[in-house]
Amino acid sequence: MTTYMHPVLFKAAEAGDIDPFENYQTCLDQLLTPDENTILHVYLGNQRREPESSIKLFDFVDKILEMCPPLLFQANKKGEIPLHFAARFGHSNEVRVLIDRAKARPTDPESGVTEAKKMLRMTNEEKDTALHVAARHIQAQVVEILTKEDPEFSYSANVHGETPLYIVASIMPRWSEERGKVIDEILTNCISVDYGGPNGRTALHAASRVGDDETARKLLEKEKTLTKTTDENGWSPLHYAAFYDWSARTVKVLLEYDASAAYIAETEKKRTALHIAAIRGCIDAMKEIVSGCPDCCELVDNRGWNALHYAVASKRTKAFKECLGSPELARLKTKKDDKGNTPFHLIAALAHQQQQWGLVIYERGSGGLNKRKLSVNDIYSGNFGEIQY
């Protein structure tokens, strides 16, 4: 049978009207919506911002908990307790009330964990604590309260592999002042910070992905080895920064802390961050990498392709021409891959699809013969088409 809450009581809970509940004969913890939300869930879920008077918030929640203490830990169908709701909607006063109520309860003699910490560490069905929720919704004041109340606890990943720090680092827009405060509170207050994210990524991967050089610098000030951590595909944070046009400043920060990151190759195709920047046509990122680590231009992938091969594969003639303006990259134009093809052999094959590449061949073409004894001109004029991108 579906549970439901009487409309009069539901509306009273929404409004924070205590009167209908003071003389209610049944236990208040039995008043449930179909999703098993209690009157506290209903109240918190309908207060989209802090009430103009914090007294109203304090009075309703405090009085309800005084009448029915079990509501403090009572979860809905999704495993969310009132603290999850308070964290989601940024009710900092409510968070303090709930914590104070939990502190007033006796400590578990077996575990030695206080009821307040027990509540702070409770997770919903997706294994989110209230801190996960507050981080996701960028509630800086709530994050400050939660992390200061339980600084020694290492908030582990939820079912999606996300820690609170990873969650907020991955959020766009990246320049939100409130978002920056959330990151600062976690890094400052938590004694043992968990940087983890899904698929082997870290918060530094997340910050690099959104082009947040400021957060990247903060993370590296706390843990410099994050530059070397690779995900399931072997991608480092530098790979992610190199992938996006807006991340050149992040590329610079990562290399300032660890230039060796430019030499990390992914697991399968063995591409470095320079290869990734090249195929994406991210010239600014390429310049940062080459400037900081010029000899990384020598690295090739599992086919023997260098960064200039990848610049051709980007199919952006402008990007390719800019690469030739760099002495380190220009030297690669005669370098052959495992099949003996130089970047200009690739251009000759591509020119059949895009005519503008034909001009590049006549302007700068060279390369000798590949392993099939074909020159650049042979491929361009004969349409042999044996080159795949």
UniProtKB/TrEMBL annotation:
<feature type="repeat" description="ANK">
    <location>
        <begin position="78"/>
        <end position="101"/>
    </location>
</feature>
<dbReference type="InterPro" id="IPR002110">
    <property type="entry name" value="Ankyrin_rpt"/>
</dbReference>
<feature type="repeat" description="ANK">
    <location>
        <begin position="199"/>
        <end position="231"/>
    </location>
</feature>
<keyword id="KW-0040">ANK repeat</keyword>
<protein>
    <recommendedName>
        <fullName>Ankyrin repeat family protein</fullName>
    </recommendedName>
</protein>
<feature type="repeat" description="ANK">
    <location>
        <begin position="233"/>
        <end position="266"/>
    </location>
</feature>
<dbReference type="Pfam" id="PF12796">
    <property type="entry name" value="Ank_2"/>
</dbReference>
